[in-house]
UniProtKB/TrEMBL annotation, chain A:
It comes from Scophthalmus maximus. Signal peptide: none annotated. It holds the Pfam family PPR_3. PPR repeats lie at residues 218-252, 253-287, 745-779, 782-816, 989-1023, 1068-1102. This is Leucine rich pentatricopeptide repeat containing. The gene is LRPPRC. Transmembrane segments: none annotated. NCBIfam families: PPR.
Length: 1425, 102
């Protein structure tokens, strides 16, 4: 049954799993697969009614809130002070534990969910990795188990049926082993998987097994067992169960009848099968589409085309017309039964609806898995979206999934070749063969890859050396030299010679030595004189034995080889070796032997460069350390009469100049062909300093001075123009430009053009642009500036010129990112108010026609807005229909509908809903209409719509409207929607009420919130924790007592109810386990330990995971001793007991808390050996502890351990900072400075903050270290233009209220005032916590102009708001008014709230909309400018 | 100092299709100026390269002319190019709106 409702089933499965954790009303969805199921209570009576599942149910959202608020956040954001905080908090560990647990579940769920939503299938790899993760983390529950089991059926179309069943069995066993309680839902899921996998099993045995496990079958179980009998044509067996169901009074549903149809059919009794339909009708059940599908399947199996057609007609006349998904099922059956000749007939019936695309793909995959790839290919060719998509700029690659699966199933290459040919010829795929090769290489399929490469070669496509690396990699890993040789022979067959990388990484390592490789290759008849092989050979000798290398190179039989190719190897070898003799001999060879230089050039000159590179490769430290060796080497060269040209010699001495190695320099100079005294000619420091003076006036002075001295003024001029542009002083900037036309560079033009555009001076902008292209015809503006130009032009009514600019953008291939698309939107939107329908249309059409960016609903919406603004509803509707036709978007349809409803335009409304219904489906049309009625206050009409039969909740649409209401502060409308949807099928009531609460919270509306609370009780809704919190917050804000308990953690509740059910004195093993686990989760580690010891005394063996859980709980409370005791017990009971990932992480943290960083390090090493991955907090705490201990070696060890991990966390900063701290701790300032300097002068690394180091040093009162570090920071700033450390120190001083020191620092290093980004981010960070206003003010008084007034007042207001300081806020407001500045709405609203809190009335109207609305608005204005 | 000014001519190229070899990169970027370094790391387990590489030019000019071109297409795929400069790495250019309003 692979396709039958696969997607629907899975979506429902995932939805149900998600809803499960929410509220009992969500449980309804577990059974949503059957069309007319009975009330649910009966189905899930036992297991799910219990509170345990309720506990799991609440697993998700609340804890993740915790995670974001108290645990993960400080680390993730990298707020240094967070580290110290985190380790102080007693509770941290358990919070971590809990959030991780939740995180794991969500993560697994989200991954599978995403896969299913997108594709309707899951890959085996993904499923296995989720399975593995769930097992190894040690946290698992019934929900996860259900999820895993249900995924082993038709959701794995790429896996053969038998394999899937094996998989589900292995999971089942493992889950049992882990102690997961398997209830009836799990057994039912297993049955479903059996059915989907056509697994033959004995239903009686199955029932016996269930009975033995004390799980009682329910209606679903019986139904599926009947289906199992029927699949085998065993009507008798099915009847037995049917009889049983009847005696139990269970309802017989359509699904049962459908099974019976199949059963009779399989038993070759077509007549009886047909007669079931009338039996159904007799029982009062109308045959549904599934019934007809069962019939069709029977005829398909028999290959009876006539009956197929007839049944189809019957179905249609019974108003049960079949969907594509059903037809696909029939096609699949036909293919498997060997009736391919009838398939085209069925394919014709497909309507190719878009929503079934994933099903189409899954049909193809299943067919390929079943060896019916030809049929699959025919289906593929009938795919609907095959018309080349004009908006998709990527090259076509339709059929990737098909080819990949063919390759994975090892389909014959001849067939793949044919598929590729057809795909390419029909323009569906740009390069299908290469793609197939990619797949085959990924699968490491040697034979297929080789054949595919032969075809590639035949067709004149390149076959490159590195194509073979995937085939070699495994052999190399296994040191399988024979395997490697085989691949190399394959390469030779295709006349591909291995390149350097292939040799060095994928061939030679398989052999014990280069010599052995050379011999083996020669024996196999593979030439070894290729450049690549030689250079690799040279490399391996260079780093091992220079003497042997000389012998090889000087051997007359050695072929010519340009020394550039081996230069790097030689340098490496020279630096490693002390064999000066050989070094000199090899160098001489390079100087004299023509074989090692490009023909026609002088060997001596080329070889001199070798010396240059040798020194170039070394740092100051290297040179100083090896000075002795180098001098010996140079002297040896000198004695061999080797000379180097003057230029190169000068180059080398220049490098050495600052290294303080005068003797060495003398030796180099001695090699120079003519005598030449080294003289230094260092860069004038002025050039560097120039950039640091920001004030225009000072720059101007500088400019004058430079001009007077007749020195180049380019840099200074550039800076002035830039500064003027920032100041928006266009006039002055233009004057300067006029004066210095010659020196002006392209970037100046672009800044000026941008400024002109912003100020609406179009004429000047165009002039400048013309001037710029005269100056440099290749110059182009960047996207921002182009768009600014378009905006300025179109706003000045110069549309055609704007269009020309757009065309130019296309010509110059300007790339547009999302930000730019957003800018385009704002550009179009800015034209709305100017009645700009034709202008907007012209621009919009041009943008899309040129393909500058993909059409989106957003970009299309200004046009509609323009129509709406001009009250032209019919125009707006026409435009939307046009946009839908051309770009498949329906922008602003809601607003149009609202407009039509408001104006009573019945006819147009009819037309609009017709279009929506046709293009977006009936359901969307209903929602559209519903929202329009709601919005316009036509409550009766809205109610009628939402009560339409068959309408179900669309969470996304509802959320959209709810957010809209919250955004615009429309409480009444929102309330109406929530009330009206009470009876809506599948509506998440908790979610609905939470929207109202959110708005209550925004507006601080206590009254409404309390009303909601009562209503929820009335409706019998169990609120999610998030909802309760919100409610509690509102009450607390208003000084009310919270009348209910706000659970701190999700498991608290579960555990309490649980222990009430199971008394401590429980006897049976399972109850012990449940009790123990609830105690652990509740954080009652001591009690858990007691219970565990009790169990131990009675001789009970618990599951490994339970021991682990107890250890975690004990460790979380820092009880190291007892935790180890439990570990010993566990080891004695479960011989191969190992701590899980979590326990190990906790162990590390526990060690650190006890001050035993070394033990923690051992644990880390151990867990890495076991393949566990340490958690981020564990590593951070460990490294911080090691840094505090001054343990450099330890940190390095951790760092090297981490290198092996493919971690996405950016933790290099921690290592650097802590190594520096460790050095400081060891009183080795020199190393600390060296380390930090090397990091900050290396361009490869991002310059991370080192505030942490400064903070620690200042905290410790280590003045000496602080002085040294401060000197270093200033040096980096002054000499290397690297300001981050100095800025960090400066801000750290401010942060620690050392105002005077900060002031001095600024005076010494005034470039700090220009680190606007860092300063601004300090400001925004500080403004997040209360009580920081002093620091902000200090910063602003020191550096008043790093940001504009508007922004600084924004943050100051935020601080006052957080401090609840109305007096200061008022003062700020007055100050701004005095200065004639306008306060932004967010700040104004904050001020209003302060007034309200103080019980005063604000002297201005409070901005009515939400904070979010104004924040967005503010952001909007920032992006627009 | 010598070292840092040299590294400033490095580019970091990502999204390189698997078919492209190191030599192809050297050849392609060679049209903008002399390439003195090109490192294309391989994943030793899979045998495929990692899809990114570092290209070092002899001159700043060459680097800039690469950056001036808007799109670089290798084997039909557009590759992404990033630069490395003191403190202005690609990760450092956070948009201002993030820090200004939160």
């Amino acid at each position: 049954m692979p396709f039958h409702a696969a997607v629907a089933n899975m979506a429902a499965l995932l939805r149900s799993a998600r809803l499960l954790k929410i509220s009992p009303s969500g449980l309804l969805h577990i059974t949503a697969t059957s069309r007319n199921g009975p009330p649910l209570g009966r189905l899930y009576s036992g297991a799910l009614g219990g509170s345990r599942t309720g506990g799991c149910a609440r697993l998700s959202s609340p804890a993740s809130e915790n995670a974001s608020s108290s645990c993960v956040w400080p680390h993730a954001v990298g707020c240094v002070r967070g580290y110290a905080l985190a380790s102080d908090t007693k509770n941290t560990v358990s919070v971590e534990l809990q959030s991780k647990q939740t995180h794991q579940f969500d993560w697994a769920l989200a991954k599978l969910d995403h896969s299913v939503r997108r594709t309707g299938r899951i890959t085996k790899t993904l499923l296995l990795s989720v399975f593995h993760d769930i097992c190894s983390t040690g946290y698992h529950n019934g929900n996860q188990a259900l999820l895993l089991l249900r995924s082993c059926g038709s959701l794995l179309p790429e896996v053969p049926l038998e394999e899937r069943t094996v998989l589900v069995h292995s999971m089942w066993e493992k889950l049992q082993e882990l102690g997961v309680q398997l209830d009836v839902s799990h057994y039912n899921a297993l049955l479903k998987v059996y059915l989907q996998n056509e697994f033959k099993f004995s239903p009686t045995d199955f029932l016996t097994k269930m009975e033995a496990a004390k799980v009682y079958p329910n209606r679903v179980t019986y139904q599926r067992l009947i289906e199992a009998y029927c699949q085998n044509g065993d009507i008798e067996g099915a009847s037995t169960i049917l009889g049983f169901m009847k005696t139990k009074g269970l309802p017989i549903t359509e699904a049962v009848f459908n099974s019976l149809v199949t059963g009779h059919g399989r038993a070759d009794d077509i007549e009886s099968a047909k007669s079931i339909l009338s039996v159904m009708q007799g029982a009062g059940i109308e045959p549904g589409p599934d019934t007809y599908l069962s019939l069709l399947t029977i005829f398909a199996e028999k290959g009876d085309l006539d009956s197929l057609e007839k049944t189809n007609e019957e179905a249609e006349s019974a108003d049960c017309s079949l969907m594509d998904r059903d037809i696909m099922q029939v096609i699949f059956t036909l293919a498997r039964a060997g009736h391919q000749q009838h398939i085209p007939n069925m394919v014709e019936r497909l309507r190719h609806e878009k929503r079934f695309l994933p099903d189409f793909m899954n049909l193809c995959l299943s067919l390929i898995t079943q060896g019916e790839e030809d049929t699959a290919f025919d289906i593929l060719k009938s795919f609907p979206t095959l018309e080349p998509n004009s908006y998709n700029t990527d090259s076509p690659n339709i059929g990737n999934f098909f080819l990949r699966h063919c390759v994975n199933m090892n389909t014959a290459v001849a067939k793949i070749r044919r598929y590729c040919k057809e795909l390419q010829e029909s323009n569906r795929h740009r390069d299908p063969l290469t793609f197939s090769l990619n797949c085959s290489l990924e699968a490491k399929n040697f034979d297929m890859s080789l054949e595919l490469m032969k075809i590639l070669k035949e067709q004149g496509l390149p076959v490159k050396s590195h194509y073979f690396c995937p085939l070699l990699s495994q052999n190399v890993k296994d040191k399988n030299s024979a395997g490697v040789l085989e691949v190399v022979k394959g390469m030779q067959e295709l006349s591909v010679s291995p390149d350097v990388d292939t040799f060095s990484k994928f061939i030679l390592p398989a052999f014990p030595s280069t010599e052995a490789a050379r011999q083996a290759l020669m024996n196999a008849g593979i030439p070894v004189d290729s450049e690549a092989f030689l250079s690799v050979e040279v490399h391996s000798l260079a780093v091992s034995d220079l003497g042997k290398l000389y012998n090889l190179l000087s051997d007359p039989s050695f072929p010519p080889l340009e020394h550039n190719i081996i230069r790097h190897s030689l340098i490496l070898g020279f630096r490693k070796s002390d064999d000066v003799e050989s070094m000199a001999k090899i160098t001489k060879l390079l100087f004299q032997d023509k074989r090692f230089s490009v023909s026609g050039s002088m060997p001596a000159e080329r070889a001199s460069y070798f010396l240059y590179y040798l020194f170039d490769n070394m740092t100051k430290m290297d040179v100083q350390a090896e000075e002795h060796k180098l001098r010996k080497y140079l002297n040896r060269l000198h004695s061999q009469k080797i000379t180097i040209p003057e230029g190169i010699c000068k180059g080398i001495t220049n490098q050495l100049q600052s290294y303080n190695v005068p003797k060495l320099i003398e030796d180099v100079t001695a090699l120079m062909s003519q005598g030449y005294g080294a003289s230094s000619d260092s860069l004038s420091p002025d050039v560097r300093v120039a950039g640091t003076e920001a004030k225009v006036a000072r720059l101007l002075k500088k400019l004058a001075k430079l001009k007077a001295e007749d020195k180049p003024i380019g840099t200074v001029l550039n800076n002035i123009i830039h500064a003027l542009c920032v100041e928006e002083n266009l006039q002055h900037a233009l004057e300067l430009k006029q004066q210095h036309k010659e020196e002006i560079i392209v970037t100046n033009y672009t800044s000026l053009i941008y400024l002109c555009c912003r100020q609406g001076n179009v004429e000047e902008a165009l002039n400048l642009k013309r001037e710029m292209s005269c100056k440099d015809s290749s110059s182009i503006l960047d996207s921002n500036k182009y768009i600014a130009l378009v905006r300025a032009l179109s706003n000045n009514g110069r549309v055609e010129e704007a269009v020309d600019i757009l065309k130019e953008m296309k010509e110059k291939e300007v790339v547009l990112t999302d930000t730019h698309t957003n800018l385009l939107f704002h550009t179009l939107n800015s034209l709305v108010g100017k009645g700009g329908v034709p202008i907007i249309r012209r621009l919009q059409d041009t943008i899309f026609a040129l393909g500058l960016t993909k059409p989106s609903a957003n970009l299309c919406s200004p046009l509609i807005t323009a129509y709406l603004e001009s009250k032209d509803l019919s125009g707006a509707l026409e435009a939307v229909i046009d946009i839908q036709k051309r770009y498949n978007h329906m922008p602003q349809i809601h607003n149009i509908l609202v407009g039509l409803v408001e104006n009573g335009e019945t006819e147009l409304l009819q037309k609009a809903i017709g279009v929506v219904s046709q293009e977006r489906g009936e359901m969307n049309m209903f929602y559209g209409l519903f929202f329009a009625f709601l919005q316009t206050g036509r409550i009766r009409e809205a109610r009628k719509i939402i009560e339409t039969q068959g309408l179900r909740a669309r969470p996304a649409r509802i959320q959209w409207f709810a957010e809209k209401c919250i955004y615009a502060n429309q409480m009444e409308t929102l309330q109406q929607m929530v009330d009206m949807t009470a009876q809506l099928f599948d509506c998440d009531r908790d979610e609905m009420y939470s929207y109202i609460l959110r708005l209550c919270k925004e507006t601080n509306n206590l009254e409404k919130a309390e009303e909601v609370w009562t209503k929820m009780q009335e409706e019998n809704i169990i609120p999610r924790e998030r909802t309760r919190r919100m409610l509690a917050d509102i009450m607390k804000n208003n000084g009310h007592e919270v009348p209910f308990e706000v659970p701190e953690t999700w498991y608290d509740q579960a555990a309490t109810t649980k222990s009430a059910v199971t008394p401590i004195t429980a006897e049976s093993n399972t109850e012990y386990q449940a009790n123990l686990s609830s105690l652990c989760k509740k954080g009652k580690a001591k009690e858990a330990y007691k219970v565990l010891k009790e169990a131990e005394e009675t001789g009970l063996t618990l599951t490994a995971s339970l021991y682990d859980l107890t250890i975690c709980a004990l460790l979380a409370q820092g009880d190291f001793k007892d935790a180890m005791a439990v570990k010993d017990i566990a080891l004695s009971r479960v011989p191969d007991f190992q701590l899980t990932n979590n326990a190990n992480n906790l162990l590390i943290i526990a060690h650190i808390k006890k001050g035993r960083a070394n033990n923690a390090l051992e644990t880390l090493k151990f867990m890495m050996q076991m393949g566990h991955i340490p958690s981020h907090p564990a590593i951070m705490k460990l490294v911080n502890a090691l840094g505090g201990d001054g343990n450099i070696a330890g940190i390095q060890e951790v760092e090297s351990l981490m290198k092996g991990l493919d971690t996405t966390l950016n933790i290099s900063r921690i290592f650097v900072n802590n190594k520096a701290l460790a050095h400081i701790k060891n009183d080795d300032m020199e190393s600390a400075v060296e380390l930090l300097e090397s990091v900050y002068t290396s361009p490869d690394t991002q310059h991370n903050s080192i505030s942490f180091v400064f903070a620690k040093v200042i905290e410790d009162g280590n003045d000496k270290a602080l002085d040294t570090l401060s000197a270093m920071a200033e040096r980096l700033a002054n000499h290397f233009a690297c300001y981050r450390p100095a800025t960090d120190l400066f801000l750290q001083l401010l942060d620690m209220d050392k105002y005077e020191e900060a002031k001095f620092m600024l005076a010494r290093c005034n470039a700090l005032a220009e680190q606007n980004d860092t300063l601004r981010s300090f400001m925004s960070r500080k403004a997040k916590t209360p009580g920081q206003v002093g620091k902000l003010k200090a910063l602003l008084s020191l550096i008043p102009d790093f940001t504009n007034k508007q922004l600084s007042s924004f943050y100051l207001m935020k601080c006052h708001y957080l401090d609840n300081d109305l007096v200061s806020a008022k003062a700020l407001h007055e100050q701004m008014q005095k200065e004639g500045m306008v306060m932004d709405n967010v700040s104004l609203k904050r001020l209003a709230v302060l007034y309200r809190n103080a019980g005063e009335t604000a002297p201005f109207p409070e901005p009515s909309k939400s904070f979010k609305f104004y924040t967005d608005q503010l952001k909007g204005t920032v992006t627009v400018v | 100092m010598a070292a840092s000014s040299k590294k400033a001519m490095d580019l970091f190229v990502t999204k390189i299709p698997w078919t492209v070899a190191r030599n192809d990169l050297v050849e392609y970027f060679g049209q903008f100026g002399l390439v003195i370094k090109c490192r294309l790391p391989f994943n030793l387990d899979t045998g495929f390269h990692k899809g990114h590489c570092w290209v070092g030019f002899k001159t700043e000019k060459a680097k800039n002319s690469v950056l001036e071109k808007d799109r670089h297409v290798l084997d039909g795929t557009t590759v992404q190019i990033q630069t490395y400069r003191n403190g202005k790495g690609p990760g450092n250019q956070k948009s201002n709106s993030d820090t200004e309003h939160d």
